[in-house]
Amino acid sequence: MAAEGGGKEMNEIKTQFTTREGLYKLLSHSEYSRPNRVPFNSQGSNPVRVSFVNVNDQSGNGDRLCFNVGRELYFYIYKGVRKAADLSKPIDKRIYKGTQPTCHDFNHLTATAESVSLLVGFSAGQVQLIDPIKKETSKLFNEERLIDKSRVTCVKWVPGSESLFLVAHSSGNMYLYNVEHTCGTTAPHYQLLKQGESFTVHTCKSKSTRNPLLKWTVGEGALNEFAFSPDGKFLACVSQDGFLRVFNFDSVELHGTMKSYFGGLLCVCWSPDGKYIVTGGEDDLVTVWSFVDCRVIARGHGHKSWVSVVAFDPYTTSVEESDPMEFSGSDEDFQDLHFGRDRANSTQSRLSKRNSTDSRPVSVTYRFGSVGQDTQLCLWDLTEDILFPHQPLSRARTHTNVMNATSPPSGSGGTNPGSNGNSITTPGNSVPPPLPRSNSLPHSAVSNAGSKSSVMDGAIASGVSKFATLSLHDRKERHHEKDHKRNHSMGHISSKSSDKLNLVTKTKTDPAKTLGTPLCPRMEDVPLLEPLICKKIAHERLTVLIFLEDCIVTACQEGFICTWARPGKV
């Protein structure tokens, strides 16, 4: 696409964009909304959310979607890129009084063409279990609000379970429920099960088994979202206190933590192989965290406001056998990247080669996306030079949107004074190259990144390689919608970010004293990614980003759910 100009063109809403895979196109006939198609006046209402389920009916059109707009909840057949949306015939529609739906999740294990189990969380704290195909309401949990009176921020079925589900609230508490059990007529009594750094877990004390089975209290302030790892064993939580906390779900142990640059963290997701976690929040950044090393490996700066959803694209995350010559060309050379489920199996067979004795026979690219309150969609690539910064960069991908430090950054004047000329090293030198820098870093930050840190960074990074193999995991495809629901806090934090956030914050002391520690490294201490694309795609803040096999689904606070056809899928 031609570069956007200034002025009016900058405010135009994009209906297509191009990446190295090709052209993504907005399908205007596939837009879902309330039947009247009138933009919803969203002042003071909860974020629009979308959930998908496939009911495996024989017609080949088994996709169903649920979305909430204000007090209303809709359930439609989703025709995606194939046919126009027929909004006149929702399968189910509900209008609530006194409380609003805030989030929802389908049980993919139990879904059939005759029956689906949909959990819906509400602004007053209740959770409803409904079947929108049978049009039944089977159960209401926390009905009297004796368990928690605060807004439900996130609700998800426990992976692999037909009956267990987890609910997070803006109180900072999470509760584990079993659909088979009742909630009791009195407030629950708890006894301590486990206590750790800034978290406690209690069991419910009662003569007969009742809900909730467990109560987790995590961090300070609202618990904005949680996400289960692809294998279901770990739970990542992000909170208004700015912390990511990753737990072993069964043993209730804290695996690792990270702190935002500033402000609350609003959203979280896992890479398809469970090796990386991405968060977004009120610092306008996306942050990539290594699960194995428990450390920040990159930040991405493209949004101009809070990041409300992050999600990995499992269909564009690729494992590519590489010939040293392969990466010398331009973006056109990457048209053959693995794209889509049909080629995932061939990816599987190559994974073992990633661990073979050859140094780097296969190269890895993770694709993820983010949407924010700035109405922009950003796509990001996490490539070899970020994942394996200690290895020679001669075979690193050329399309990475991070400037390799092997060429002097513009404005830094080559090497720094007094750095023995080692601050910029070439792949032939024995000194590990410093971390990649992006063009968007202020010059002062670039010139600080001298050679004194590069040897250390290389040493730390060398611990990564043996874990950084990409296996798309044997998780079943039914999990690919697991990370869809996003919950971002409506908390009003007075400190709005500035574009120069990495300079401004230097002068203030971080209240938690975390800045500059492994919990929250300084901006110049980790690579800063730039987005592959950053496009304004809506009039109102964006609240949904879901990657499906043949399309990308986004939604904004006006209640419009948009389908973007992947290249060649129209």
From TrEMBL:
<dbReference type="InterPro" id="IPR001680">
    <property type="entry name" value="WD40_rpt"/>
</dbReference>
<dbReference type="InterPro" id="IPR051362">
    <property type="entry name" value="WD_repeat_creC_regulators"/>
</dbReference>
<protein>
    <recommendedName>
        <fullName>WD repeat-containing protein 20</fullName>
    </recommendedName>
</protein>
<keyword id="KW-0677">Repeat</keyword>
<keyword id="KW-0539">Nucleus</keyword>
<keyword id="KW-0853">WD repeat</keyword>
<keyword id="KW-0963">Cytoplasm</keyword>
<keyword id="KW-0597">Phosphoprotein</keyword>
<feature type="compositionally biased region" description="Polar residues">
    <location>
        <begin position="437"/>
        <end position="453"/>
    </location>
</feature>
<dbReference type="Pfam" id="PF00400">
    <property type="entry name" value="WD40"/>
</dbReference>
<comment type="subunit">
    <text>Interacts with USP12; promotes translocation of USP12/WDR20 to the plasma membrane. Component of the USP12/WDR20/WDR48 deubiquitinating complex. Interacts with USP46; contributes to the cytoplasmic localization of the USP46/WDR20 complex. Component of the USP12/DMWD/WDR48 deubiquitinating complex.</text>
</comment>
<keyword id="KW-0007">Acetylation</keyword>
<dbReference type="InterPro" id="IPR015943">
    <property type="entry name" value="WD40/YVTN_repeat-like_dom_sf"/>
</dbReference>
<dbReference type="GO" id="GO:0005634">
    <property type="term" value="C:nucleus"/>
</dbReference>
<feature type="region of interest" description="Disordered">
    <location>
        <begin position="401"/>
        <end position="453"/>
    </location>
</feature>
<dbReference type="GO" id="GO:0005737">
    <property type="term" value="C:cytoplasm"/>
</dbReference>
<dbReference type="InterPro" id="IPR036322">
    <property type="entry name" value="WD40_repeat_dom_sf"/>
</dbReference>
<feature type="repeat" description="WD">
    <location>
        <begin position="258"/>
        <end position="290"/>
    </location>
</feature>
